[in-house]
UniProtKB/TrEMBL annotation:
It comes from the Bacteria. This is NAD(P)-dependent oxidoreductase. Residues 3-252 form the NmrA-like domain. InterPro entries: NAD(P)-bd_dom_sf, NmrA-like, NmrA-type_oxidoreductase. It comes from Parafrankia colletiae. It holds the Pfam family NmrA.
Length: 294
């Protein structure tokens, strides 16, 4: 029986595989899956885990991919608009293969959030709950990397643009969320105080984008201002920067949700699950600045 990780060609899934190995899970029990197994070769070489092809849009691939699964980490996919059907097919296949635990990466406040991004997460959660399968839902907050990956452009223009107003966003690094997922997969969802939750609201430090701009200013040693834009203007700016229109719309809408507090939590589930404070914005920005480019 095995632990199957989906989305292991992606950032979060591969970090979870590395973390499982780091905390002593036998490589022979771990199956890393992705749509293109050639993109899992480096991970397999580094960790010794098995790799298999799993494409949620191709249910026939999932019976082989999930054969022998005990615990499944279902990493939410990227095709907004098609994700619910993809997730549903993955849940059905995992249950048919005999999974005894399905861990799903959702979004913060999925049950109440009005973000465009939240709708398919909420439907997936409801499907998982109705399936009767033992499950844990990890409602991941925003990634610090959503901001630190934009560092070169922010530095170039001296501006952090957004539509978040004075809203606070609860943020942590992908590594923090990956460590949480690995902890759940190895503990069945128990947190450090011994209690078990089916739903974890995961977020670290909370801040406004004005506060984040101040951190950028301090670490970069040059003034960075937060520029608050109407949602349509921010979407247009993102489109102008080269993002596809539908991605720009979803990201600008997420900032509007941020302004309403929908990506904010007071929960300390993340710190409890990982047994340490989540990464701060100060640390993340310093790490991003120190990282070699190219
Ligand atoms: N909390 C946040 O701030 C935030 C930000 C961005 C995304 N997310 C969500 O969190 C997820 C994980 O984040 P990430 O940074 O690891 O994203 P990522 O690097 O883009 O990885 C996404 C993974 O999903 C896989 N995938 C896409 N469509 C699939 C399908 N039809 N069947 C099977 N796998 C499929 C991708 O496979 P391929 O390599 O084949 O494309 C990839 O491995 C994302 O997919 C998204 O749902 C959250």
């Amino acid at each position: 029986m095995s632990v199957v990780i989906t989305g292991a060609t992606g950032h979060l899934g591969s970090l979870v595989v590395d973390r499982l190995i780091e905390i002593g899970q036998p490589a022979g029990r771990i199956v890393a899956t992705g749509r293109d197994t050639s993109r899992l070769a480096a991970l397999a070489q580094r960790t010794g885990v098995q790799t298999r092809r799993a494409d949620f849009a191709d249910p026939a691939s999932l019976a082989d991919a999930f054969a022998g699964v005990e615990q499944l980490l279902l990493v939410s996919t990227t095709d907004v608009g098609q994700r619910f059907d993809q997730h549903r097919q993955a849940i059905d296949a995992a249950l048919a293969a005999g999974a005894t635990l399905i861990v799903y990466t959702s979004i913060l406040n999925a049950d109440t959030s009005r973000l465009l991004l939240a709708d398919e997460h909420r439907r997936t959660e409801e499907y998982l709950q109705a399936s009767g399968a033992p499950h844990v839902i990890l409602r991941n907050g925003w990634y610090l990397e959503n901001y630190t990956d934009r560092l070169p452009v922010i530095r170039q223009h001296g501006v952090l643009p957004g539509s978040a107003g004075d809203g606070r966003v609860s943020v942590a690094s992908r590594q923090d969320y990956a460590d949480a997922a690995a902890a759940v997969l190895t503990s069945g969802g128990a947190v450090s105080d011994g209690s078990v939750h089916t739903i974890h609201e995961l977020g670290g430090e909370a801040f406004t984008l004005t506060e984040l701009a101040a951190t950028f200013s301090e670490v970069l040693g040059t003034p960075i201002a937060y520029q608050d834009l109407p949602v349509d203007d921010y979407a247009a700016l993102l489109t102008g920067a080269g993002l596809p229109a539908e991605v720009a719309t979803v990201l600008a809408d997420a900032d509007a949700g941020l302004s309403r507090g929908e990506l904010y939590t007071t929960s300390d589930d993340l710190a409890k699950l990982i047994g340490r404070p989540p990464t701060t914005r100060d640390q993340a920005v310093r790490d991003a600045v120190a990282r070699p480019t190219g």
